[in-house]
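ok, trying the design again with the full structure, not the truncated one.
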């Protein structure tokens, strides 16, 4: 069949449609999304650009469901640093790292169940979470706080608990980023990460949480765009039959749908283009193509569709492989109607009366190191200096964070200066000195994210502390040095509730 004939083969194009999950702009479904859903598109992925309040989002998903009752509606909602539901306000639930620090699996399960209820209320059917990556490389630029921690057994038990909780609320979980993105130092949004451990090392670390996820009955697994040399030196996992077929299907015996991470990410799209990477992912063993973080129009969906169908027509992609992928996506679409809560009693979780579970976890995750016993609490409103590196594209860079705002509610008169790295530009000595001048005669609170990972941040903190050794230091990224300042507070997350919990400690009102 000539390649241009694919557009005249409705059956083949329908199979191609059945494996695509695009994003789209706006808070109402565009006409092209409605039309393609009616024609057989598998579903859609929601981003923060699609989400306003609960009522608006529920109307949006209802409109999608009106075109196709079994539409797959996905979202990338990890809580904490990667939130789509609360991108405008900051997450009311801390991310995985805080949960790992608390290390209470019943609490992890209950937090995921609480999130699942919110997602179900707005019509979401699958959440691309949890991140089951073991953050074994502290310089990892894209995982960090998204991981439950660096201990594979801890990550495994919390991955299982998170899945159990979410799926008990009727929302499918999708463990990611298979076979494990934790031991990397490249962001796959920007380049190709490599994991170079042996198969034995991978089995003991990276794969352990995914085995736990499969045993727990996770509905889906998301691929990572990373080269794992022990299995395939040539292709990233998303495009590797050795990893998706031989390892995941045959060795780990996972028979559910496999969904790609954003196929527009540089790690795969730079070499093959978005449509070419999508076709190669299906050929390698993936079942669903997630696209639409930065590319979210009908043209790219049509190009993916035609490329997949054209590859079948040319004989480079077996039609049976495409049909198998489409069938797995149909099973995923039916999952919410067939889901059953896990057997056994729900674990008892004792929450303080009137305290949301997210704030409860954030409070329990706080760790305080006092060098000056009298440094806390503050009795006067401070000046707060907040500093942040440029974050990975996985996070919405406009999501509020910090301690200054909630501290202002507890200590009226608190003022805030904020410095954010932008395209390599960082605050200079003059800017820091001006911020110090604003703190003259007042308490000073220095807040940072990932201070130990970024030289400019570490040096800025040292400069500020040289002038004000009485300052309080708050670390809202991965834990590192705790010997800075008169007191050091580690929040293990930068969600809104993490800032609230730190502010409570500083103001002396923590429970």
């Amino acid at each position: 069949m000539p390649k241009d004939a694919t557009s005249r083969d409705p059956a083949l194009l329908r199979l191609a449609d059945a494996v695509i999950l695009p994003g789209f702009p706006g808070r109402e479904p565009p006409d092209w999304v409605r039309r393609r859903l009616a024609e057989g598109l598998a579903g859609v992925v929601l981003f923060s650009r699609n989400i306003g309040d609960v009522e608006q989002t529920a109307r949006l998903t209802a409109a999608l469901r009106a075109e196709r009752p079994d539409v797959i509606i996905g979202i990338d909602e990890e809580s904490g640093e990667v939130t789509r539901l609360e991108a405008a306000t900051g997450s009311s639930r801390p991310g995985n790292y805080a949960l790992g620090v608390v290390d209470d699996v019943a609490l992890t399960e209950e937090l995921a169940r609480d999130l699942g209820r919110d997602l179900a209320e707005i019509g979401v059917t699958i959440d691309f979470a949890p991140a089951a990556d073991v953050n074994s490389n502290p310089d990892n630029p894209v995982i960090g706080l998204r991981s439950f921690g660096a201990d594979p057994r801890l990550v495994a038990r919390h991955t299982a608990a998170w899945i159990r909780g979410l799926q008990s609320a009727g929302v499918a979980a999708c463990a990611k980023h298979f076979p494990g993105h934790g031991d990397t130092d490249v962001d796959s949004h920007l380049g190709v990460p490599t994991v170079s451990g042996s198969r034995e090392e991978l089995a003991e670390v990276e794969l352990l949480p995914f085995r736990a996820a499969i045993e727990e009955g996770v509905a889906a697994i998301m691929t990572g765009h990373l080269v794992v040399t022990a299995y395939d030196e040539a292709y990233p996992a998303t495009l590797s039959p050795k990893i998706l077929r031989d390892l995941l299907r045959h060795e780990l015996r996972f028979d559910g749908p496999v969904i790609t991470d954003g196929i527009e990410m540089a790690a795969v799209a730079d070499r093959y283009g978005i449509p070419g990477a999508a076709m190669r992912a299906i050929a390698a063993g993936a079942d669903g193509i997630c696209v639409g973080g930065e590319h979210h129009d009908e043209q790219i969906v049509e190009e993916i569709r035609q490329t997949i169908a054209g590859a079948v027509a040319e004989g480079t992609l077996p039609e049976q492989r495409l049909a198998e992928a489409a069938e797995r996506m149909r099973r995923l679409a039916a999952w919410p109607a067939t889901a059953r809560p896990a057997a056994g009693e729900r674990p008892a979780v004792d929450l303080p009366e009137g305290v949301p579970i997210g704030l409860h976890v954030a409070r329990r995750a706080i760790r305080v190191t006092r060098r000056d016993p009298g440094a806390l609490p503050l009795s006067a409103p401070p000046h707060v200096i907040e500093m942040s590196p440029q974050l990975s594209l996985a996070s919405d860079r406009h999501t509020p964070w910090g301690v200054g705002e909630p501290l202002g509610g507890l200590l009226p008169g608190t003022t805030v200066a904020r410095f954010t790295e932008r395209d390599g530009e960082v605050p200079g000595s003059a800017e820091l000195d001006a911020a110090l001048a604003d703190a003259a005669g007042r308490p000073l609170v220095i807040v940072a994210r990932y201070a130990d990972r970024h030289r400019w941040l570490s040096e800025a903190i040292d400069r500020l502390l040289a002038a004000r050794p009485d300052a309080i230091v708050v670390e809202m990224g991965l834990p590192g040095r705790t010997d800075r300042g008169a007191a050091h507070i580690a929040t293990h997350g930068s969600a809104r509730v993490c800032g609230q919990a730190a502010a409570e400690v500083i103001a002396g009102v923590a429970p």
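Keeping the full-length input from now on. Residues 21 and 290 are 5 Å apart (CA to CA).
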